[in-house]
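Much of what follows relies on a compact textual record of a protein's fold. The record below shows the convention in full:
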Amino acid sequence: MAITFSADDFGLSVGVNEAVALALTQGVLTQTSLMVAAPAAADAVRWAKEMPGLKVGLHLVLVDGDSLLGHARLPHITGPDGKFGKNQAVLGVKYFFSPAARRELRAEIRAQFAAFAATGLELHHADAHKHMHLHPTVAAMMIAVGREFGLHRIRVPAEPPGVMKLCGERVGFADYALYHWSNTSSPKD
């Protein structure tokens, strides 16, 4: 399997966008994930349209970041500023156990997929900020809603052994998987 490098947080800032562009032109990067509600999302879309070799996915923000729908529409899962909290455990419990939170979560996921579609970019894959798509409720909604927008791939993280070794960890597998499926088959490599 060829190693593919992906950058998250595309759209978070102009500096992040410039780093993604530089990494692509230097041959280090092949894909990125766009935060559609982030402050520099429009700048990221401009960069992506100027770099046709860059594959762009949706980086759902459902923790520690801006929502699209705001607090009035998401009172159970955002603060008064319209941002998702930073505590993944607390949000994870809400997403799993609260019907009101799940309704709001689905609406926000749909809004983010719609905002991505409105950019005119081809949807290469989806994942979530801080790997929140590994949460079973989020994953199920991301896939169900995403399919309506042409989603066929999700990025699942697993850090390379060399990186983990530098962090003092021992692992036995490499890189991350980009799972791909068609409408008639189940997810696979």
Notes: Residues 99-118 form the longest helix (20 residues).
